[in-house]
Design goal:
Layout: E1 6-11, H1 15-25, E2 31-37, H2 43-47, E3 54-57, E4 62-64, E5 67-70, H3 73-83, E6 88-93, H4 98-107, E7 111-114, H5 118-122, H6 124-132, E8 137-138, H7 140-149, H8 160-171, H9 177-184, H10 188-202, H11 207-216
Parallel strand pairs: 1-2, 1-3, 3-6, 6-7, 7-8
Antiparallel strand pairs: 4-5
Helix pairs in contact: 4-7, 8-10, 8-11, 9-10, 10-11
């Protein structure tokens, strides 16, 4: 458990949401907000400014200012937790896909709150402190989503590594396989095999089809239907 103030970082691209988090957290004497960013690629810079105990993030935040695709949370979450040993991740999102919530839990996050769960949002300061102390918190809606769907649900058609590769590919649809392989620290041939096996499991023929199918199944972050974000179109063919 942190001996000093709990330092919190925020990733969310809606300023009104960020303002709400500041309102609920900055007046708490036990909590200090380290900063907030709106794009996934800005996370490392924020975390490098100083120690952070809890990262609050929205899985639908865009990758970068010029890349509005959701950032690859299944790729980044384990790496952030590995690089920052004292960090706990608390997801607050509109996304309620059971498979994605379970995958994030397996990846090591410490909590998941649906943005519509106002009772949990009102207790955000206490939840942040509990997570910083090593606890795990799932809002009632997220917990029910996991519990109610799990017994009759088919197992996800992708392995965690395949889901990570598809998540990364969806975030950077225009990047060649060599660049994606470098992000995953594997060879291009290994990534090619990984993606081809994922395609087979999804019944897809290329990266674009695999991305769409994975989003439909809730295996990676879906595109929000609000129209507030304009994602980069996935490739229509090739690898």
């Amino acid at each position: 458990m942190p001996t000093q103030k709990v330092r919190v970082a925020i990733l969310d691209d809606h300023q009104s949401v960020v303002d709400g988090y500041y309102y609920r957290l900055e007046k708490q004497p036990e909590i200090e907000i380290a900063g907030a960013v709106g794009y996934g690629e800005e996370l490392e810079g924020l975390l490098a400014r100083g120690p952070v105990d809890v990262l609050i993030l929205d899985v639908s935040a865009p990758t970068a200012r010029e890349n509005r695709n959701p950032y690859p949370i299944l790729h980044l979450a384990p790496k952030l937790l590995e690089r920052h040993a004292a960090l706990s991740i608390l997801v607050i999102s509109m996304v309620d896909d059971r498979a994605l919530i379970q995958a994030l839990l397996d990846a090591g996050i410490s909590g998941y709150i649906l943005k519509e769960d106002m009772a949990a949002i009102q207790q955000l300061a206490a939840i942040v402190q509990a997570v910083a102390a090593g606890g795990v918190y799932f809002s009632e809606q997220a917990f029910q989503r996991l519990r109610n769907d799990a017994p009759g649900a088919d197992p996800p058609p992708l392995t965690p590594r395949q889901a990570e590769a598809i998540s990364l590919s969806a975030a950077y649809p225009g990047e060649p396989l060599s660049a994606l392989a470098g992000m995953l620290h594997i060879s291009e041939s290994t990534l090619r095999n990984l993606l081809h096996n994922a395609y087979a499991r999804l019944g897809a023929h290329n990266r674009g089809e695999a991305t769409l199918k994975a989003r439909e199944l809730g295996l990676i972050t879906p595109l929000l239907p609000s129209g507030s974000r304009r994602p980069t179109p996935p490739e229509s063919g090739g690898q």
